[in-house]
Amino acid sequence: MLAQEFRHTRRVHFQDTDLAGIIHFSNYFRYMEETETEFLYALGAQSGEADFHEWFLSPRVGVQAEFLRPTRFGDKLDVMLSVEHMGRSSIGFRFRFLRGDELVARGSMRAVYVGHNENGGLRSTAIPDKLRPLLEPYLVKE
Amino acid sequence: MLAQEFRHTRRVHFQDTDLAGIIHFSNYFRYMEETETEFLYALGAQSGEADFHEWFLSPRVGVQAEFLRPTRFGDKLDVMLSVEHMGRSSIGFRFRFLRGDELVARGSMRAVYVGHNENGGLRSTAIPDKLRPLLEPYLVKE
Amino acid sequence: MLAQEFRHTRRVHFQDTDLAGIIHFSNYFRYMEETETEFLYALGAQSGEADFHEWFLSPRVGVQAEFLRPTRFGDKLDVMLSVEHMGRSSIGFRFRFLRGDELVARGSMRAVYVGHNENGGLRSTAIPDKLRPLLEPYLVKE
Amino acid sequence: MLAQEFRHTRRVHFQDTDLAGIIHFSNYFRYMEETETEFLYALGAQSGEADFHEWFLSPRVGVQAEFLRPTRFGDKLDVMLSVEHMGRSSIGFRFRFLRGDELVARGSMRAVYVGHNENGGLRSTAIPDKLRPLLEPYLVKE
Fold it and tell me: B70: domain range?
């Protein structure tokens, strides 16, 4: 059953292309993160330090992507985000990149929510309570 | 007398920050170019190879910027573009970066329109005829 | 049995960090590609258009990475490349990121060699004949 | 009279090119900063937090560059750094980009040394005492 997806639309920019005339693959990861950020703002995150630590401080532990079709300068991409995994502190996002109806790439990103422990280091921490129910509708049931 | 300005709004993204917690200055130049691209699309440029060669193939010959206030993750910036110079083949864009009413940075970028000559090299060429009148309203009169 | 590994050493640069004080994950993919390029130059590739088309024109079809330890500004990383797969036209590189003796990240990248067909499009083509034997010593036997 | 220059050699990487087949101009600023970092390490800066705050925490207040010749994938560039200005807290670096004997670009970057004040904000501070004499040989006398 398909989950709800969040859509972020963005143009492939000139600086994202390489001399082969197509978007350099490393930029797909920038687009993924940009989409995650816009998603969290859409869910209610605010700018500012408090929300940053609560909503955004989630180092990535793994990412992957497959590139199915070349994309070019000026293409408009819809980046579709859903949640493919939600643990106590870890979260996995799934991304589909569409140009119109055409799937041009897909990928996923796993992150772990962290907080500062007493000596200033980082330790994994639970996904924020207020965030969890907001993520539910986007969770892929398989 | 102030010229018309084109506005492109964008968020400062996580990946654009550095460990000092502020946007890394090199990204302002990415924002400038992104704004120029959106400007040309707004004027009527189409995706595709023909328009690319006519509207976008303008290597930069010089750029500069001043950074007046630090900008941070989540800030929304309005990038305001005007034309400060228009020669036969060269064009100079001026950029003001606003966070609300506050001017946080400003910069400029000079480019030269080029075409391919018979041996495949590049030579400067006139600003496209259909582009010139569209740029006029954005030209700063001083 | 371990294959030979190619080593590329590089510093984590300021612009590669983000506001969490660690390297932004998207840069690992830049480091991977940089390492592949230095590897091909070490094997004998020359700058210039001919070698570019023969050695380098291999669009990526998939990449993945795992981030095991945070890396910081000023860290020196040894990026270790080996070949984990070699097909007719496809190649898979494996990367290990070491900070001293410590494995901080690992990843892989799959690419397909392509050439231009008669209508200017791209089609997959065999790995160049002179490249294949040079890659052999780096092939991981499992 | 010419000052001593620090040299940092680096290759133009694939990901630094754009679809016009040349290096995207925004990367020159990355190369500048990379060169400044290598320069400070060569002068004796160490990795780690203390040296970071003393040697590296200098937000940029302005940068500019001129692009004289296109540079391409695989080109080796020598980035030559000298000091064109040294005030109480401000410093100006000058950069020349050479491909062999050919000057392909030049630029400059102004920065201000800062420290944290009592409320955690940033204020300009003097260039570190141990850094100033080390910079002297690189100061351009005009």
Answer: 6-44+52-138
